[in-house]
Design a protein that fits this description.
Elements (H helix, E strand, L loop, with lengths): L5 H16 L18 E3 L2 E3 L2 E6 L10 E7 L5 E3 L2 E6 L3 E11 L4 E11 L7 E5 L7 E6 L5 E8 L4 E9 L2 E6 L5 E7 L5 E8 L7 E9 L2 E4 L7 E6 L5 E5 L4 E5 L2 E4 L4 E10 L5 E7 L4 E7 L2 E6 L6 E6 L5 E6 L5 E7 L2 E4 L7 E2 L5 E3 L2 E4 L3 E4 L11 E8 L5 E6 L5 E8 L6
């Protein structure tokens, strides 16, 4: 008797089982043919938030009926049905898959991609001057409630003293100096928690002023204690975590009374400049060979993002998508603005970015950048008869409101809030 090899017996058995399972259900023993998946996506690209209609009703089954449609949108969401609507609330390229099942359990899948662009700048903006108190206003940040923080200058016998201010609902208010010799507000979160620094004049070396980082929470000043003579809190996220740096070249994070020193990229210097609501921190750090590179710090790990080819770079903001903007030297020593997104650092040309919102719109200088329109001069987008000239934008919120500085028709320096005039902006 001829022996059949074991692997041949296994294959024969599997084939027999497959043939039985694929019967037409009437005892005829005919093989079931798998369905063919197909779908359309309308639109297949657009700006976040993007609503897409997916239609897989053109999928077919030659010898039966399709009984199931399962969708995977590539953003962690799923759905069932031949026709479905899905809203992409983040931007990027998403691979969408549909799996169809026929009445005998056979399946087929089809995949295609949807491109979701980041938000776009408004077609036009209206400008409102922030009422000054004493001296010139220097706005630094604006939250999603439209609250602006910054500082103004007061000239005294020693020097121009800085004093923190807040602006909301048309009213500018001084925060005072908290009993010290100066103050400045650098950032404000959506709960009105303010990060900044207060100043103390050195009695031995007047008019030198040493600044110390603080948080201002519900009318209470919280000093951020460091081991350095001078420290600055540059940002605060919605969880109340502040980040900044010390004069000793130490980057830090501060939350719930706990101070954390951030690691470096191998050198002696680190500065944390921005933190998002996921706790990702962006900044710049010295490397072992003396260069200064952009970094991201997350879950105890610092990652070198690099530069645009030069020796130094500076980060100014990180959004909740993990996009980072700032400026970088090029190999020839000149500098350009950059956007770091999805593992790639790209030049933004002549822009000098100061902020990026969660829709991916970038501001800096007198310019605004978005993925669709590229770089635009804000002076071309403000109302032509307003008489304003924009010189520098410091921050943008998720509603597209911006805060910065410029001058009016008389040449007077003013702090300005820009608000989108159209409803299609981010």
């Amino acid at each position: 008797m001829e022996l059949i090899p074991a692997h041949a017996r296994i294959l024969t058995t599997l084939f027999a089982l497959a043939s039985i399972s694929a019967c037409d259900g009437n005892g005829g023993g005919s093989l079931n043919r798998a369905p063919v998946a197909s779908f359309t996506a309308l639109p297949s690209e657009g700006v976040v938030p993007l609503v897409v209609e997916f239609d897989a009703s053109a999928s077919s089954d030659a010898d039966g009926t399709i009984v199931g449609y399962e969708w995977d949108f590539g953003d962690g969401e799923s759905a069932s049905g031949a026709k479905v609507l899905h809203t992409f609330t983040d931007y990027g390229v998403f691979e969408v898959n549909v799996t169809v099942t026929d009445d005998h359990g056979a399946i087929d899948a089809e995949a295609d991609s949807v491109q979701v662009f980041s938000g776009v700048a408004a077609a036009s903006y209206s400008a409102v001057a922030i009422p000054a108190l004493v001296g010139q206003l220097y706005p630094q940040d604006i939250n999603n409630q439209g609250q602006v923080v910054g500082y103004f200058t007061v000239q005294d016998l020693i020097s121009d003293r800085r004093v923190a201010f807040t602006y909301s609902d048309g009213v500018t208010s001084s925060l005072g100096t908290f009993g010290f010799d100066g103050s400045a507000a650098e950032a404000v979160n959506d709960l009105s928690v303010i990060a900044g620094e207060y100043g103390v004049v050195d009695a031995l070396s007047q008019p030198d002023t040493w600044y110390h980082a603080f948080l201002y929470v519900e009318g209470r000043l919280i000093a951020i204690e460091t081991q350095s003579l001078e420290s600055y809190a540059l940002d605060v996220n919605n969880a109340g975590t502040a980040v900044g740096y010390t004069r000793a070249g130490e980057g830090f994070a501060y939350a719930n009374g706990e101070y954390q020193t951030l690691p470096t990229l191998g050198g002696d210097y680190c500065s944390a400049t921005s933190i998002n609501d996921h706790g990702q921190i962006a900044g710049q750090s010295e490397t072992a060979d003396g260069e200064r590179h952009i970094f991201v710090y997350e879950d105890g790990v610092i990652t070198d993002i690099g530069t645009l080819g030069g020796r130094r770079a500076w980060a100014t903001a990180i959004n909740n998508h993990g996009d980072i903007v700032g400026s970088s030297e090029l190999p020839d020593g000149s500098s350009e603005g950059f956007l770091y997104r999805d593992g790639l650092m790209q030049s933004l040309g002549t822009a000098n970015p100061t902020d990026i919102n969660n829709a991916g719109v970038v501001v800096g200088g007198a310019e605004v950048w978005d993925e669709v329109n590229g770089l635009q001069d804000l002076n071309d987008l403000i109302e032509p008869d307003a008489g304003w000239t924009i010189e520098r934008i410091e921050a943008i919120n998720d509603l597209g409101q911006m805060v910065g500085a410029g001058y009016d028709a008389t040449g007077t320096d003013v702090a300005i809030v820009l608000s989108p005039s159209d409803s299609g902006s981010q």
